[in-house]
Amino acid sequence: SQQGEEDPQALSIQEGENATMNCSYKTSINNLQWYRQNSGRGLVHLILIRSNEREKHSGRLRVTLDTSKKSSSLLITASRAADTASYFCATDEYGNKLVFGAGTILRVKS
Amino acid sequence: IAGITQAPTSQILAAGRRMTLRCTQDMRHNAMYWYRQDLGLGLRLIHYSNTAGTTGKGEVPDGYSVSRANTDDFPLTLASAVPSQTSVYFCASSRDRGEPQHFGDGTRLSIL
What integer is the mean pLDDT of A27-42? Predict the structure, then answer.
């Protein structure tokens, strides 16, 4: 069963615009992670936010976590064509596994 | 270059055949994982190993088996392939469970 549910399923923006993707989950978590997947490749880890953190930055990425609403968002600022990819959230449920959502497909048009 | 190597990159297999997907990492990570990725379903965990010598079942383990004889290798075996096992299979590793995972580039498997 999927824990994280990303929204929207697909997003198309112009280069230079910001892209926001949301993730909702159902149970208590240890941390939440965001991954990127380029077409035909494996997933690449972007950022990890722990349950006691509310916001984290990495370059053009900003992640927020609201444990009361069981939701997270990933913001990519000043998007580039190279950001075109699928983005997945994954939750660590204090167990032995990450549970991945179905992903958001981001297309950045140049 | 450090990372995860998966082999083969793609395979077409007749139903009923046995197949082993290979996965090797050179990062000395303790934990390793096998996922399958199907359109619209994201990644689903098949089996995992928190450390050499131990394995555990994930969300969709039926029809698959794994072994972890050493730190570096984590092969996935389909004992008797069925068409519903057609998928893209990803191997991943992490320093410890709960840590960020590093992924291979996948094996695209078609069962006819």
Answer: 94
